[in-house]
């Protein structure tokens, strides 16, 4: 393959056929898995746990890559192999092109110090050290002089809005603040890669939202590469540029939130996502339709009037040079312009009549615009071009078929498939040692929708408002 600079820079982290099998006969289990990839039943009797099986993915620089799965699905095992805290049974982990599975302990420690920080669920703060000293801990380990350490730690605390609490002890802070100290510690370390294992899972929902927002903001500012682990689908959808869904040690799908919602790779994923608030995830571009009447701004008002008659709509969408969206012209305005003898639509095109949203606007934020808009809401792309329109009917039917958890679904809920597709914490996969496998969280199955909801199509057709 010819040399291309982006090949080296595009991914910060690359995982290839990565496995972790716990148990004495891991090698035998590996052999079986390699020869028959789905042959888990052949592992019975070996008393091994296949925690991670054949993981393959790349994390792009500056991306938030979420790994989502139920308790026991192998997330922590996976993330611990990413920074070498656990060595894989098989496979490679490359950080900036270096296979860390081949590094000697000292080289590995150096790489961790310089390139990867980790944020844990339970903060791991030291109770007798000030917030400032906690934030600067990684720098202390790295042997930085005190003054420099303080400065960097303070700067990191400022980023998370905690510089006012620098001299406090962790116990004087709320849970949300403590977790932000954990975040500050990772930021102070100045590494490009941050691994976050259920970092926000212990927080109350509202506080959790706050720290999620903060992470998104920091991410936009600092462009860190983040691997974020969660068992919470909504958190995954909020944070993830891309999401890897894990089940029983295997990554069953990798995609954007929208891809996973609209095109789940199998029943398991479909069921997992059935109760998510889609209106927050799906964006205008997922529900928009082709606009019926579009005219060029240089057209005469008679053309506009004709298109209005033909399409039986109350406004035409007017575009200018480079297809840039300029606004709409109503039937009344077009008729008046004909009487006034105008030559084009330049002076009568208006953005007052029809609301405009961006193609990335969440569906939830379009309802108000749609309610105020007598004709379908205009959707513009980042270049300002008319990408599509959203008739109110479309939005309402989208809402109906999307709110799968309200009982107002257009699809008929069916009992869960018996054929083992129902997501569970999968204790049984500690093959031959069922029941001995600990999970972090005994009620993991409570997070899973009890019913399978047939996947409605979100691209609704027909009908203009
Ligand atoms: N040190 C270990 N020894 C044996 N089994 C383990 C060990 N750590 C985790 N496991 C098992 O590996 C599977 C995956 O665990 P883990 O990676 O912690 O999942 P998650 O983080 O998704 O909850 C589970 O069945 C768990 O019991
Ligand atoms: Mg875990």
In short, what is this structure?
It contains 18 helices and 18 strands. It has a 6-stranded mixed beta sheet, sandwiched between helices. It has a 4-stranded antiparallel beta sheet with strand order 2-1-4-5, sandwiched between helices. It has helices at 5-9, 26-35, 75-82, 105-115, 131-135, 137-141, 146-159, 175-188, 205-222, 233-239, 257-262, 267-272, 278-281, 284-287, 301-311, 331-339, 367-372, 392-402; strands spanning 11-22, 49-60, 64-69, 90-95, 98-99, 116-119, 193-197, 225-230, 242-247, 250-255, 294-296, 315-319, 325-330, 356-358, 377-380, 386-390, 413-414, 452-453.
Annotation, overall tally of beta strands: 18
Task: For the largest sheet, list the strands in their spatial order.
Answer: 6-7-8-3-9-10
Return Rg in Å. Answer: 27 Å
Number of contiguous helices? 18
Low-confidence spans: pLDDT under 50, at least 5 residues? 1-8, 403-465
The ligands bound in this entry are:
adenosine-5'-diphosphate, magnesium ion
- Give the structural class: alpha/beta
